[in-house]
Amino acid sequence: MVFSKEAFVKIEKYLPVQRKKSIIDNYVFLSAILCAIENGCKWRAIPKEYGNWHTIYMRFSRWSKNGYLQRIFEALQKKA
């Protein structure tokens, strides 16, 4: 599954503002999450092109705990 730039633009306003230059930008990060979901959430199976699997997992964990992912899903449901 490829996360399109058009889809990213629709949800970009719901993402947290990055305070510093990140190794993995939000577009690549969300693409990596979709890849993990597609592979049954095997974080270690994420291709290297997305970056270090542990970095992606840690950001996913932070976003989940802070409610960012829930807000994105809720916003998308309201639009649908």
What is the number of E strands?
A: 0
Instruction: Bin the strand percentage.
Output: under 5%
Count the DSSP helices.
Answer: 4
Average pLDDT across residues?
A: 86
Backbone CA Rg: 12 Å
* Structural class by secondary-structure content: mainly alpha
Folded structure, characterized:
With 80 residues, the chain is mainly alpha-helical. It has a domain at 42-80. It contains 4 helices and no strands. The mean pLDDT is 86.
List keywords for this structure.
80 residues, globular, 57% helix, mainly alpha
Task: Summarize the SSE layout with pairings.
Layout: H1 5-11, H2 26-38, H3 53-66, H4 68-79
What's a quick, concise take on this entry?
This protein is mainly alpha-helical and about 80 residues long. It has 4 helices and no strands.
